[in-house]
Amino acid sequence: MAHAIDPHAGAHGHPAHDHHHGHDHHDQEEMKTFGFWLFLITDVILFGTLFATFVVLRLNTAGGPTGGELIELPGIIASTFILLTSSFTSGIALLEMNRGNKKGLIVWLIITALLGASFIYLEVTEFIHLVHEGATIGTSAYWSAFFTLVGTHGLHVSVGLVWMTALIIQLSRRGITPVTKRKVNIISLYWHFLDVVWIFVFTIVYLMGVM
Amino acid sequence: MWHKIKDFSSEFFVTGDPLILGAQVSIAITLVAIVFTLTYFKKWRWLWTEWLTTVDHKRIGIMYIIASILMLFRGGVDALLMRVQLAAPQLEFLHADHYNAIFTTHGVIMILFMAMPLMFGLFNIVVPLQIGARDVAFPFLNSLSFWMFFFGAMLFNVSFIIGGSPDAGWLAYPPLSELSGSPGVGQDFYIWGIQISGIGSLATGINFVVTILKMRAPGMKLMQMPMFSWSVLSSCVTIMFAFPILTVTLFLLFLDRYLGAHFFTLDGGGNPMMYINLIWMWGHPEVYIVILPAFGIFSEIVATFSKKKLFGYKSMVFALMSISFFSFFTWAHHFFTMGSGANVNAFFAITTMLIAIPTGVKVFNWLFTMYRGKLSFPTPMLWTIAFIPCFVVGGMTGVLLSVAPADFQFHNSYFLIAHFHQVLIGGVVFGYFAGLYYWWPKMFGFRLHEGLGKWAFWFWNIGFYVCFMPQYALGLMGMTRRFNEYDFDMGWQPLNVVSTVGAFLMGLAFIFQVWQIAHSIKFLKKETSGDAWDGRTLEWSIPSPAPMYNFARTPVVTSQDDWWEKKQRRLRGEAELPEVAAAEKAPLEPIHMPRNSGIPFIMSTCWFVAGFGFVWDWKWMIVLGLAGVIISMLARSFSYNTDYYIPVDEIERTEAAARGAH
Amino acid sequence: MANHNAHSGHGGHEGGHGSLKSYVIGFILSIVLTIIPLVAVMNDMFSKQVTTVLILVMAILQFAVQLLFFMHIRDEKKPRFNLIALIFGLVIMLTIVAGSIWIMTYNAVAS
Amino acid sequence: MRSKFRMLATGLFLAMVFLISGCSSEQYIVLDPKGPIGESQKDLILISTLLCAVIIVPVLILTAIIVWRYRDRPGRKAAYKPEWEHNTKLEVTWWSIPIVIIIILGAVTVYYTYKLEPSKAIASDKEPITIQVTSMDWKWLFKYPGEDIATVNYVKFPEDTPIRFQLTSDTAMNSFWIPQLGGQLYSMSGMAMTLYLQADEQGSYYGSGANFNGEDFAQMTFTADAVSQEEYDAWVEEVKADAPALTMDGYKELQKPGRSDVQLFSSFPEGLFEQIVTQYVEEGSSGAHSHHGGGAEASTDEEAASDEHASHGAEETEAANASHEGHAGH
Ligand code: HEA
Ligand code: HEA
Ligand SMILES: [Cu+2]
Fold it and tell me: Domain D129-296: which CATH class?
């Protein structure tokens, strides 16, 4: 990513260049991005385990309501498209950043965050609705798995929102530097990842639930 | 008022048992003594700036090792108590509930708070030095990992005097570990203690994968990396994929207990068997996580003390990687007797046996490294040689267990106990001891007393066989694990007595080790060459203990066993290779270093507070702790002044001092 | 030199790629891939089995779209540690899910 | 110093041998089976041990030889080749020997896994006797649906007759193990597992709960008596005549956590086992879910059960599995 600004980019790793400040940072930031990628893969496993639990317990409703009975698809469809769009807008933010447009970057990040916030709003509304219908985490194994899986995804999105806000503040203070650039790259990776997870939540929990 | 306090404290503190009272008193005395010493010698500031906030991988490594030795002591005392209880039929030494708590804490502490941190300690000390790096990839995260482990372990250990220990077995099968089976707070301490330290382990896993893949010295190809670093890579890859499963599993159990969810409960459609399925998906890879680095250590030591190149480097690498891959496909061998049908059992029996193949290849490669070598036997090598027969036999009994229909007879018996102690002690403990003895001079700059080390070695070995061989026999006599007492007429007593004697021999061995360390510190025998064993890899090319920045100039690597080759060239009087010579003659440059930070310590303390709050369900404390965690994270995100440069003249001074010590 | 090889990081930001065009294509594809299963499920177009397979396939395609067009997994330089790690992760993840389902079918509780 | 160690080691070793031989061979009950299942398992243990020993013993010997021969000492004759680090032939050899052994061992294991699948009936001309086993806190409850008697911490059955144990648990899981008859199987709440065992000889066998389930876990041992058919019939008569009945209240009493002595009952509430299996099913379970319970109930009678399941179609496989564990494995 620092290629654009680092004239020595071709020579990383060569001892003679170790002192070069920009270069040093370049490697460091790249390493952090790689580390974050690995973290995302551990998150894949984490969600995989939650999915496995959900699938295994999906029939154990203990006489209580089933998912198909209570899920209201329209809201879910809306949140799905919202999240898809926010994945797209976070990509646009990245493009703006690569063009060196700080303002565009911040604006698109704000749009992404707002979309994310409305996703969370819809999810909270849905949960409240479900609780009113008598489905809580303690209702049955099915609902335990449901709330945990969907809720863990929601928690991830919420963390992403806090983080994005912090990042927007940092960007407005410091502008586009190798460090903030890496941070934006990372958060957009995270955001795309959450979108992917949601697609599977949408398919396996909701679509299959109402089938 | 007074009454209230009394009621509260009788629930809060564990009371009524003289053993525990004694422990409480001695813990209190120790704490007071520590506080007093630190204050008296005005060491608080030193403690904070030099240790608690350090991000130096070598210091973090040392802290890991100290913590793990303390945990070995506690786990060992637990073991000795159990062995005393089992020495005679129907002994009234420990009550059932007390015994149950002891084997639970023994298992958890030994594996999660002894083996894991000892392993991480060695990772930290050795890996950056071995691959020619200045630190790990993420020094801040590394410090965070350590403190998460430390406070997780403390949270778990606190249950001993506050609230009561968990007593549902080291893997806490529900429904016994649910509120219905364990209404007390012990199980919550278990969940949060392991959860918090587990997150630290996960971070360490990622950290070292990145370190190894991205921070190798220029020229060091993956296929030239020292075998220990390879084993760390395989172990950390396994951590990355296994630990998230543990996180989820414990989290689900927590939801059951705390929010009344129904994942593993008896009622509400919960299925306890799902927990067993999930926990072993982590639990099985976990045992390979701890054994793989031991394999790496043995590989280093065997080559060093045979004065010979490691045999079959490529197949060693391949074996390591395939073990960590296959470890994810065998978990069901821990519950062959769950009645999942012949298809499941047959599949998992086969996958389990497959692991014997790469493991066997490693054994042969070690043997053929020694073959045509020139063997010498200082303590690290002794442990290595003792390891081979012990682990081979333990592995073989593992293969016997993997024969599914036969496991119906072995399962949960002392045969199993003997198997896993043989691989855990003969493999993991021997391996880490070997590593500890081997790298001790590098860590501290002085040598350990060899004579006392040999006494310890023999006592450990003899004690081990005396303790655990009879347990195979006991298993075949039908003695099941987790029995706190047995009847006279089973005829189990004689062998149990033998086993107890063996356990105490190991206890003696441990005392020898403590003595050895104390003795060596007192009669400090400085190790000044930096190359205590005529080693082969990069860590031996720098002074002991390594300076803070490790390498004054980034080394350039041209071959496997690079340091050895370089020494050979020198011996032969050859000129240095041009690229190496160029790098060595290059002028010193300021070194980029990470700054110390108090955030990891503070953030982990906050996790401890939150965990403690969850255990007792004190909402204010939970909120306080979690808020602290979030603030720490944001504080980190907003701090940009996280590194600095060591100026050239300071490097020159340090190097001169190190050389001067020659 | 190792660091030359090791230098690979995640793509997605190395100049040329990550164009607006690729984001737009990705976005459109992901919308389409969401609508197809929705329509299939809402209108009960196929048998249960067919629908299940269909929507799972769509989800996987959608995943591929995000990976290729948004996360730029293609642009990684060699050695492709990101891709290797991802594949390994997915294999383990599938093992967890499929293995659990397989084992637990024989241990379902009466409920 | 070294010689002292040797003396110590030899002494301890001798003491161990003495103590082990002091125990008679009958004490190794796993290796002294009295029924077809245990017999096969013993064969399997011996076969697998031999197969492993074929490679392990040479490895141990080789280790000793190499360590001895290549130790560094003045004037040794053994070769020293510090650069010798690769030999394709050798490496291929030790990849292939373990592979061959594992292939053989794997084949044997698979064969026995299907042969000894616990829910597979034992071939016999006698009708199997069903005994319903419930692990409780902390005692074993045995019910004989055919004879309508029940026992606690004691079980008796005729020799030479296949026994169909049906296992479940009242609370935490346990594992039902009579080493001399055959391997163990978990008893788990909410499901009924089938384990076939048979005693070929009369005798009194040790049985235990092998899976930890809480405080008084160690008290969950019991005796399994295999007797002649006549003796068994007489015993059933006697229990029916003399022992008290197990009522629902009596069962509630048993459910209270605690240890128990041997108890005998002349009858037990009808459908008690099914109730235990389905006790955690919530009231008002509807639709498919109540059939799960039905499945367990019917499983006391294999034929009826499969009929019932057949009639419920595909979605019922789940229930069928809950009560007919492992069948899908055939
Ligand atoms: C470091 C830890 C460690 C290691 C390395 C191993 C290694 C192995 N283990 Fe072990 N195991 C445990 C720790 C470990 N185990 C623990 C802690 C438990 C119990 C947990 C609990 O229930 O609380 C357990 C339980 C356990 C079980 C469950 C038994 C039961 O609960 O009933 C099984 C069953 O298959 C098993 C098998 C194996 C096998 C096949 C290996 C193999 O990897 C061994 C491979 C090595 C060799 C075979 C030796 C060298 C090879 C050769 C010289 C080549 C040729 C050999 C042959 C062809 C045979 N182990
Ligand atoms: C790395 C892991 C590890 C290690 C090193 C050990 C080490 C030992 N273990 Fe451990 N063990 C486990 C892991 C480990 N164990 C696990 C996972 C379980 C299963 C738990 C469960 O079922 O849930 C288990 C269970 C277990 C049991 C079975 C309990 C039961 O099922 O009822 C026994 C019984 O003999 C035992 C014995 C020992 C002994 C004698 C040692 C010895 O090596 C210890 C050596 C002793 C010392 C190092 C202590 C030194 C102390 C002193 C010198 C001080 C002396 C002071 C006083 C006497 C006050 N262990
Ligand atoms: Cu295992």
Answer: mainly beta
